[in-house]
Design goal:
Helix 5 packs across helix 7. The chain has one domain. It is built from seven helices and seven strands, in the order H-H-E-E-H-H-E-E-E-E-E-H-H-H. Strand 4 and strand 5 form a beta hairpin. Helices cover 32% and strands 25% of the residues. The N and C termini lie far apart (51 Å). The chain is an alpha+beta fold and 244 residues long.
């Protein structure tokens, strides 16, 4: 019995260490992916994305739904880092999906996050029209302290002449699995300054591996929060300060 207990304990320790190493690697991949795709610009050629597709196991699909103005993209490139395969983008499978999902489902709810092995994912969608980048959408969602937290940003082909500010920041709700939460969402135009791009893109990656979990989306996207404190005119459906 003692040997069995010792072996079980050793297995748990080994699993935990391997899981932490695996997640550290996935966090590095996610932050690198977000940084590289954050440098994609409206009008870039489709071919410029191909090295990123290879590097981050991206894939291409044809959108089935129109934009609010009724227009369609020719295609969309999708990039995702999703260590626990939850939530998972429909219609795409990868190696080890079945095995990783089985491990995730076998562990009681809340046990992973209490050990700092939080469920999270990062995704980027790049839409293409006439062989050129038309828009870029990025999202990060993570289990926080009692709710899901998100950071979303979109780069669109708009300008100040159309009445769109270079950066507009708002909030939106999240519904994932059996839980809900909130996200901070930023909209950028091609004329956004480096400060505004940093405010929209900057991610507190510690929230992805935190033992206690981050409290709110302000912890996840601190640069956006600071920007709103200094530039309240950039707020849309919120009034700074947005978190306490």
């Amino acid at each position: 019995m003692l040997w069995g207990t010792a072996l079980a304990f050793a297995f748990l320790i080994a699993f935990y260490v391997l899981a932490r190493v695996y997640l550290a690697y996935e966090v590095h991949r996610a932050t690198s992916m977000l940084a590289e795709l954050g440098r994609v610009r409206i009008g870039d050629g489709e071919a410029s994305l191909l090295p990123l597709v290879s590097r981050y196991d991206g894939w291409q699909w044809t959108p089935k739904f129109a934009h609010p103005d009724g227009s369609f993209d020719d295609c969309e490139y999708v990039f995702e880092v999703n260590p626990w395969r939850f939530p998972n983008l429909a219609g795409h499978t990868r190696r080890f999906d079945t095995a990783i999902r089985a491990v995730t489902k076998a562990i009681p709810e809340g046990r992973l996050s209490s050990a700092g092995l939080r469920l999270w994912m990062a995704g980027v969608f790049v839409s293409i029209r006439s062989g050129r980048v038309h828009s870029v959408d990025a999202n990060v969602v993570v289990e926080g302290r009692g709710e899901w937290l998100g950071q979303l940003w979109t780069l669109e082909a708009k300008s100040e002449e159309s009445g769109s500010p270079p950066l507009a920041v708002g909030v939106t709700s999240l519904e994932i699995g059996n839980g809900g939460g909130g996200a901070i969402r930023a909209f950028l135009t091609p004329s956004a300054s480096q400060e505004q791009v940093h405010a929209a893109h900057n991610l507190n990656a510690a929230c992805l591996t935190s033992m206690r979990g981050c409290r709110n989306f302000c912890d996840l996207a601190p640069a956006a929060t600071r920007y709103l404190m200094q530039h309240p005119e950039a707020a849309t459906n919120l009034i700074p300060p947005i978190c306490r």
